[in-house]
Amino acid sequence: MPAASALHLHADDDVLIALRQLLPGETVAAGISVRDPIPPGHKLAARLIRKGSPLRRYGQIIGVALADIEAGRHVHAHNLGMGEFAREAGAWTPPAAIAPDLAAPRATFLGYRRANGKVGTRNYLAVIPTVNCSATVARAIADHFSPERLAAWPGVDGVLALPHALGCGLDTAGEGMQLLRRTLVGYARHPNFIGVLFVGLGCEQNQVAPLVELVGAHAPGMLRHLTMQGEGGTRAAIARGIAEVREMLAAAGPCKREPVSVEHLIVGLNCGGSDGYSGITANPALGFASDLLVAQGATTVLSETPEIYGAEHLLTRRAAAPEVAAKLLERIEWWREYTRRNGGEMDNNPSVGNKAGGLTTILEKSLGAVAKGGTSPLAAVYRYAEAIEARGFVFMDTPGYDPVSVTGQAAGGAQIVCFTTGRGSAFGCAGVPTLKLASNSALFERMRDDMDVNCGDVLDGTPLPEVGRRIFDAIVRHASGEPVRSEALGYGQHEFLPWQVGAVM
Questions:
Q1: CB-based contacts of 376: which residues, under 8 Å, 6+ apart?
Q2: What pTM value is reported for the model?
Q3: Most Cβ neighbours (<10 Å): which of 15, 439, 466, 470?
C-alpha cells in the first residue's frame, strides 16, 4: 500500500479515507484539496456528490447524500444518511469451495481431548446458576477456589462462576427461556469446561432437572447440581457446592494437552468499538485467517446480525445452498420487525464511538464487518446459542452487543474468539480465550495491555496476507494455552450475558 495521506479503496468509491489528521488546504494523494478538518479514519469526498445521490465505499452503497458535497469536504453524519435503495442481492449461484492446500503443512495446536470427541483450548470447571437468585451462591463457590487452593491441581485453569440476570419471570415455553436454556446447556457441554455444577434456588421457572436432561450425556461425575432450598439455605448450599467442585477437581487435574489438528477448532469472529480503519485492516486480515482455518477443516463463526445489515447480499451470494441464503434473510427480516416493535431502527447502530472513529451509517459499518468472514462459502446459519455442527464458515444470529454476541458464540461451541477493535474494546469471555486485534497502530500502542495483535501496520504497507497469517499463528498459539491479554487481566465472568428477549413478568 503506497504511503499517502488518504486512501481510495475502490475505483467506484465516492470517498477517500484519511490516514492521518488532514487540514484544510492540504492536497491528498488523489490530487484533491482538503476543504474541512478530517480526523483520522474519516471520509472526505473524492468528487462532487449531488444531494440525493447514492454514495459508495468499498464499491458498495453506504448511504445517500443529504446535501451537495464538494470534493475535499468531510463526509459524515451531517451530510450522509441511510436513504432507500435496492439491495444488490442478485440470483443465487453455488460458490466455489475453498479447497485445502494439500501441500501446506497441517497446523496443530495443543488441546484437551474430551470423551465425546470435542477438543478444549482450556480446562476449567464452571459453576452456573439457573437463576439470578442463586448467582451469589454460585459466585461464593467459585471464589472459594483461589489460586492458592487451586495450586493442588496444576492441570486446571480455574473455577469460573457464570452469574446472569435471568431464570425466572419468563414463560417456560417462550423464546426468552429457550434462549437462556440453550445458552446454559451450550456452556455445560463446552469442551473448555471439563466439569459443571448447576446451582438453583429451587422454585424458579428455569428448573435444574430439565437443564440437566437437556445437557444429556456427560463425562461421569462431571455434571452435578444442587438447589439452595434443597440444601437448607445459603451457607449449606455453598458448603455442598465446594465439596462437589473439589471432587470434580480431582478428576480434572490430571488432564494433559496433546497435539491435535486445527480442524477441531471453532473460532468466533467478532468486532466491537470499530472505526474507519476496521474494514481496511483488522477485519479483512481476520478474514484471511478465517479462510486459512476453513481450508484446514476448521469452523469460523460470523455473528452480530444488526451489524451485517445492508451487506447481507455479500453473504447470501456465498451461501452453500439456497436454503442457507433464505435462512439468513429470514433472520434479517426478524430483526427489522424486532426493532420496529421496540421503537428502534436498524441505523441506531453505529455507536457514538463508531461515529467518532469515522463510521457514519450501519451500511458502512456492515460492509467492513462482513470482511471478517473472508471469502469462504457460507455453510450454515444458526440461531442464537445453537450447537455448531457444520464445518467451514458459518453464521450465528446474535445481537451486535458484544457480550451477548460472544456469549452466544461460546454457547454454540467456539473454543476461541477473535475480536477486532478500532476504538479499544476491553473485552474477554469466561473460559474462552478472546484475542483482541487492533485496527490501528496508535490504538495498539495506547492500550498494549489489552491488545493481542496489531493489524495497523497494513496502513504502513505490510501485506494483508502477512497480517492474516500473524492472526492465524496467534490463534494456534493461544489455543495451545498461552494466555491472551484479557485472561491475564481477569476479564470474562462479568461479561457472560445471555440474550434477553420477551416479556419479563
A1: 98, 290, 291, 294, 300, 318, 392, 393
A2: 0.95
A3: 439
